[in-house]
Amino acid sequence: MSASKPASTPDLPIWKQADAKPFVQFEAVTKQFGDFTAVNRISLDIYRGELFCLLGGSGSGKSTLLRMLAGFEGVTSGRILIDGVDMSGVPPWERPVNMMFQSYALFPHLTVENNVAFGLRREGVPDAEVRARVAQMLDMVQLGHLGKRKPSQLSGGQRQRVALARALVKRPKLLLLDEPLGALDKKLREETQFELINIQEELGVTFIVVTHDQEEAMTLATRIGVMNHGEIVQIGEPHEIYEYPNSRFVAQFIGSVNMLEGTIVEDEPAHVRVACPDIGGSMYVAHGINCAPDQEVHIALRPEKIMISAEPPAQSENVCSGIIADIAYMGGLSVFRVRLDSGKELRVTQPNIERDMGARFTWNDRVYLYWGVTTAVILTA
Amino acid sequence: MTVPVSAGGPVRRLLSKLNPGRHLVRGIPLGWLILFFLVPFLVVLKISFAETAIAIPPYTSLLEWDADEAYLTLQLNLGNFLYLLEDSLYIDAYLSSIRIAGISTILALLVGFPMAYVIARARASTRTLLLALVILPFWTSFLLRVYSWMALLKQNGPVNDLLMLFGFIDAPIQLLQTDFAVFVGIVYTYLPFMILPLYSTLEKMDMTLLEAASDLGAKPWQSFFLITVPLAMPGIIAGCMLVFIPAVGEYVIPALLGGSDTLMIGRVLWDEFTLNRDWPMASAVAIVMLLFLVLPIMFLRNRSDRLED
């Protein structure tokens, strides 16, 4: 994004528009529990209509950030603004925010209908309207027929839908979802992911999702904020995070990656050349980076971007050779673990685009690995 | 048993049906209840249908065996029960017992709920200490504790002194030998029975439910009445029954702390046994009291079972 661009550029996503007003603003927010800093000076803007994922391991501070937004935790320093309004001192029950809890937190003594109606009744919505809106919401999550049941009589997936309906029925400006799919099994999780996206687009509510599951974040998010040790280490669209990680942590956290070490030999504006003893040669990357000659760097290579062949390829750079140490045939994909002559092992995945392709190589075959000039990511952090 | 175990499925099934361990496990509490509850109850029931006699024991037997005529007569004297209805003293005593026990139970609930709540929400280490403190009074004699309330509440006792010190009253007021003293005594004595079941339900409660309620717009007092109280209901019912039932038949506390006009069924019962030596009448009083208590409890139990469905 550059400042010289025209102010109104509607085809750009909202977070790249220069004049867009952020909907949720974290301004240098810090949260300490005693000596422990759970969230460390985070500044973050989230825009209206986004589906923003906070992605991180346990203890990264992502849940604390969400709980501060909902008002369950105070802020040690900094400010949180929702729609331009400072939230400090605003109790949870007065915030224009609803949350879907990881445990769903359905009220066990109330029926599904009364769970969903709970929020509306607190607002003093007339009874007829409560019933209509509850019915409409339950229909949307396809639970219209189960309104009279208690939560204990529902399956995990159904409970998740009730929790979603209960959080959405008040038409909040902002919906917070804490590991929304964490308790579902794999198949249900995939279905629900797309349903969540549809609902979000249909209602136009801003979603902030906390998750530790990078696949979930990649599928759901318009943008991802990767968190580590109470800080946001990278913010970007899913493909940016995956293809252009800005640190070893992000590269390794999102997807699987081969991490190599090397030394900068040439650093030109249009390319970089790195000596990489791991591959017994040099690596050529067709874009410049900001670094010094002789600097030690890490090179991230995604396994699916490496080609594998029995014959030596034509190129002399970005190539190495080794023997196959392990094969995992996964149907659609084959995963090879190749031990290079340097002793380093690389993970390579190949789609089996033709039948019986998985059987091309066997253990201890000598193979050549090669990749394109834009594949590798040089990491200085 | 000499059943060959190796004989396979059916035999093993039979054995597991006859499982001696299972019968033992069920049998011990059952035997205990029969021996120490059912049998004494039947004895009392029997005495309630007898008449007083100047004898040892001081009542007539129900069965009479005439050996010459080979004639067995069963005499059931319903007079005691009829007398309970005729003399308003007994009905007044029952009603007054239920009133005093009911008020005490509500007071114990009001005092015990916040205490149980605080204990359930305390840190694990503090929680153990607080629970120990709740149970601690049981380590001293019950009678001693009631006597110390007599000392505390008397005319020139510490409670009156404090009230005068802070200017609430000008002269000592009558605290002892009032219903108030009886309430204090019952609430104090039975409070642990209220706190412990409340604690155990409150401790199990998921705190995120309260967060969810406040997230949905419920103010703290609304969350309390809409979420906490309904979920604590099993504990509330258990605690109230544990306080109410013994409080109805309480004798020592009204006798020591209550006034001469504090009419409670426990005292009536005691008087019938000891002063009047009318064992059948006393037994009838006890049987009716039991009915008074058992019926509402069965109703409550039914209700809470239905609540769980």
Automatic annotation (TrEMBL), chain A:
<keyword id="KW-0547">Nucleotide-binding</keyword>
<dbReference type="InterPro" id="IPR027417">
    <property type="entry name" value="P-loop_NTPase"/>
</dbReference>
<dbReference type="GO" id="GO:0015847">
    <property type="term" value="P:putrescine transport"/>
</dbReference>
<keyword id="KW-1278">Translocase</keyword>
<keyword id="KW-1003">Cell membrane</keyword>
<dbReference type="GO" id="GO:0005524">
    <property type="term" value="F:ATP binding"/>
</dbReference>
<dbReference type="GO" id="GO:0015417">
    <property type="term" value="F:ABC-type polyamine transporter activity"/>
</dbReference>
<protein>
    <recommendedName>
        <fullName>Spermidine/putrescine import ATP-binding protein PotA</fullName>
        <ecNumber>7.6.2.11</ecNumber>
    </recommendedName>
</protein>
<dbReference type="InterPro" id="IPR017871">
    <property type="entry name" value="ABC_transporter-like_CS"/>
</dbReference>
<dbReference type="Pfam" id="PF00005">
    <property type="entry name" value="ABC_tran"/>
</dbReference>
<keyword id="KW-0472">Membrane</keyword>
<keyword id="KW-0997">Cell inner membrane</keyword>
<comment type="similarity">
    <text>Belongs to the ABC transporter superfamily. Spermidine/putrescine importer (TC 3.A.1.11.1) family.</text>
</comment>
<dbReference type="Pfam" id="PF08402">
    <property type="entry name" value="TOBE_2"/>
</dbReference>
<dbReference type="GO" id="GO:0043190">
    <property type="term" value="C:ATP-binding cassette (ABC) transporter complex"/>
</dbReference>
<dbReference type="InterPro" id="IPR003439">
    <property type="entry name" value="ABC_transporter-like_ATP-bd"/>
</dbReference>
<comment type="subunit">
    <text>The complex is composed of two ATP-binding proteins (PotA), two transmembrane proteins (PotB and PotC) and a solute-binding protein (PotD).</text>
</comment>
<feature type="domain" description="ABC transporter">
    <location>
        <begin position="24"/>
        <end position="254"/>
    </location>
</feature>
<keyword id="KW-0813">Transport</keyword>
<dbReference type="InterPro" id="IPR050093">
    <property type="entry name" value="ABC_SmlMolc_Importer"/>
</dbReference>
<dbReference type="GO" id="GO:0016887">
    <property type="term" value="F:ATP hydrolysis activity"/>
</dbReference>
<comment type="function">
    <text>Part of the ABC transporter complex PotABCD involved in spermidine/putrescine import. Responsible for energy coupling to the transport system.</text>
</comment>
UniProtKB/TrEMBL annotation, chain B:
<comment type="similarity">
    <text>Belongs to the binding-protein-dependent transport system permease family. CysTW subfamily.</text>
</comment>
<protein>
    <submittedName>
        <fullName>ABC transporter permease subunit</fullName>
    </submittedName>
</protein>
<dbReference type="Pfam" id="PF00528">
    <property type="entry name" value="BPD_transp_1"/>
</dbReference>
<feature type="transmembrane region" description="Helical">
    <location>
        <begin position="93"/>
        <end position="117"/>
    </location>
</feature>
<keyword id="KW-0812">Transmembrane</keyword>
<keyword id="KW-0813">Transport</keyword>
<dbReference type="InterPro" id="IPR035906">
    <property type="entry name" value="MetI-like_sf"/>
</dbReference>
<feature type="transmembrane region" description="Helical">
    <location>
        <begin position="282"/>
        <end position="300"/>
    </location>
</feature>
<dbReference type="GO" id="GO:0055085">
    <property type="term" value="P:transmembrane transport"/>
</dbReference>
<dbReference type="GO" id="GO:0005886">
    <property type="term" value="C:plasma membrane"/>
</dbReference>
<feature type="transmembrane region" description="Helical">
    <location>
        <begin position="129"/>
        <end position="150"/>
    </location>
</feature>
<feature type="transmembrane region" description="Helical">
    <location>
        <begin position="32"/>
        <end position="56"/>
    </location>
</feature>
<keyword id="KW-0472">Membrane</keyword>
<feature type="transmembrane region" description="Helical">
    <location>
        <begin position="180"/>
        <end position="202"/>
    </location>
</feature>
<feature type="domain" description="ABC transmembrane type-1">
    <location>
        <begin position="94"/>
        <end position="300"/>
    </location>
</feature>
<feature type="transmembrane region" description="Helical">
    <location>
        <begin position="223"/>
        <end position="245"/>
    </location>
</feature>
<keyword id="KW-1003">Cell membrane</keyword>
<keyword id="KW-1133">Transmembrane helix</keyword>
<dbReference type="InterPro" id="IPR000515">
    <property type="entry name" value="MetI-like"/>
</dbReference>
